[in-house]
Amino acid sequence: MAVYKLIGPITQLITLDKLPLKGALKDESLSSIAQAGILIKDEHIERVDTYETLKATTTTLQPELIELDGDYVAVPGFVDSHTHICFGGSRANDYAMRNAGKTYLEIAKAGGGIWDTVTQTRKASQETLTQNTIARANRHLASGVTTIEVKSGYGLSVDEELKMLRAIKDATPQVEADLIPTCLAAHILPKDFDGDHAAYLAEISEKVFPILKEENLANRIDAFIEEEAFSNEVVTPYFEKAQEMGFDITVHADQFSTSGSEVAVKFNAVSADHLEASTEKEIALLAHSDIVSTALPGASIGLGCAFTPARQILDAGGAVAIASDWNPGSAPMGDLLMQAAILGTFQKLSNAELLAGITYRAAYTLKLDDRGRLAQGYLADFNLFPTHHVNEIFYHQGKLTPQQVWKNGKRVQ
Ligand code: NIG
Ligand code: FE
Predict the structure, then answer these.
(1) HSE (CB half, 13 Å, CA atoms) of 394?
(2) Are the beta carbons of 29 and 352 closer than 8 angstroms?
């Protein structure tokens, strides 16, 4: 027997229904329902309408009535489509060194940076990594993030990458948010690997990819395309193999130098993430594709560098998602809402563009078309903010947090 719930009245419900994947969005395009209700059937939204209409027309379904008192704005549960929340240790020293004048790449060359986290993550047991992931996912959930992508990439050997992905898999049933795993074994060439970049990637594709399939550990493959990491040439056979095996491709692109977005286009990636260094050429390339450009303001804030040119990408007709990149090195804050709000002030993004970026546009990069909008048939994943108008949410720059978080039709916060 289906279980129905009716929640309301909600002062303003922002549906995001039918808004396009690509291009600029004006705030006037945000459709809203005043004094709204959400009728939930099991895990999904059965109907949205005014609360009074729903109450009057659904009596035969005998929904459990959840009556709200006071002002609330409902928006879809947030989707963070790029994180590295499975890791051991801290990189507070890197952070201090950067602020004292060393660059991210200098620190990496001196043995800090990603390699430092690899060392600390390898020392951690699979169970510790699971617990670390659970704790961070729960913090995210409390701030309204109901779907979280999680990358490996701090193991950097066959066994250690598998350990990370198994830790993420173990965390998944223990958290209310959905975790979407990605294999980022192509993060950097591990210092202890006996061979070059091509040999390392060949080993990963040969020994890790089949196990990802067998154990259902991930169906997404990511690579960091950068001088200090992997080149366009070296990653090509790796991505070809991944595609042959049916994996989706996503790319850390154009963070410090360009060429990653070209790789993303070549492989028709689901997303190209970072793009802080993209020029007009890369922007045009991305905007003319269906690849979602993912801005990672947390990395710009953490490194003190330029923001992704989100305004230009949207104006050129591209799709822009916004993700936290939560990681111990470049983006330790991990507050998606605050970061999106800050990106908005620097890049002059409308509230509609910010909301789209952390809901349905981010969901698209994960190939999840069942969430990110509040309309019939979508998952009942939503946040109730204790305020009267959607503009208040970004105005408070992350300090207004949801009072209620709903995931799969259940209140989880
Ligand atoms: O997305 N750019 C490469 N990878 C991560 C940073 C990882 C780290 O510094 O630990 C990123 O910013
Ligand atoms: Fe990243």
Answers:
(1) 22
(2) yes
> Beta-carbon neighbour count of residue 189 at 10 Å?
20
Six-digit token string for 82 = 């790029």
Which two structure tokens, joined as six digits, stand for 130?
A: 């699971």
User: Whole domain around residue 57: which residue ranges?
Assistant: 4-76+372-411
What does the alpha-carbon distance between residue 319 and residue 289 come to, in Å, rounded to a whole number? 9
Among all chains, which residue has been given the structure tokens 């260094």?
A: 277
The phi, psi pair for 89, rounded to 5°, reads 80, -165
Cα(357)–Cα(362) distance, integer angstroms: 6
pLDDT tens, per residue, the chain with 413 residues: 999 999 999 999 999 999 999 999 999 999 999 999 999 999 999 999 999 999 999 999 999 999 999 999 999 999 999 999 999 999 999 999 999 999 877 898 877 899 999 999 999 999 999 999 999 999 999 999 999 999 999 999 999 999 999 999 999 999 999 999 999 999 999 999 999 999 999 999 999 999 999 999 999 999 999 988 999 999 999 999 999 999 999 999 999 999 999 999 999 999 999 999 999 999 999 999 999 999 999 999 999 999 999 999 999 999 999 999 999 999 999 999 999 999 999 999 999 999 999 999 999 999 999 999 999 999 999 999 999 999 999 999 999 999 999 999 999 99
Instruction: Tell me: do 223 and 95 sit in the same domain.
Output: yes
Residue 283, domain CATH: 3.20.20.140
DSSP-derived pairing of the beta strands 382-385 and 410-411: unpaired
C-alpha angle 78-169-269 in degrees, rounded to nearest 5:
60
CA distance 287 to 316: 6
- The reply to whether 163 and 59 lie within a common domain is no
- Choosing from 80, 81, 83, 84 the residue with most ligand 1 atoms within 8 A of its CB, the one to mutate for a pocket test is 84
- Asked whether residue 67 falls in the same domain as residue 85, the answer is no
Distance 151 CA to ligand 2 centre (A): 8
CATH number at residue 47: 2.30.40.10
Q: How many CB atoms lie within 10 A of CB 207?
A: 15
- Which atom number of ligand 1 is nearest to the Cα of residue 299? 12
Q: Which residues line ligand 1 (CB under 6 A)?
A: 84, 113-114, 117, 224, 252, 255, 299, 325, 327-331
Whether residue 203 contacts residue 170, with contact meaning beta carbons closer than 8 Å, is answered with no
- Ligand 2 geometric centre to CA of 45 (Å): 32
